[in-house]
Amino acid sequence: MIQALLPLLQPAMGKVLDLIPDPKAKEKARMEMEKEVQKAEGSFRDFVVAYEGRGDQVHWTIQILRGSVRPVLTYLLAGAFIYGFLTRNVEQDTMEMLWQLNLLSMGFWYGERAAKNLGVNFSKKKEEK
Prior knowledge:
Layout: H1 2-17, H2 23-52, H3 60-87, H4 92-110, H5 112-117
């Protein structure tokens, strides 16, 4: 169980390792930690593959369902927003919610970097006047 948490704890453990005064001991501990984290990540991947099955080992209907969830959700959200924008018979609060859901969906689908390249600002910091 603790091995599954190792990748999450790696940054904190790295800071603890920085407190070791001896550079050789610090480097040895860091190498051992990285080896254990890689081992934990590998065993977790093996567990997931054993639990869910590899993509080519599951039934074709499951493959279609797995591959269709994100596109269908994205099309529904984008379609609802476009419908509300074009017809103007959707409440303003609902349009704001749809906009935010579309940003989340597109951020998940294409990544935060693509959204930032489009000029979307995710931070809530207000500029001081």
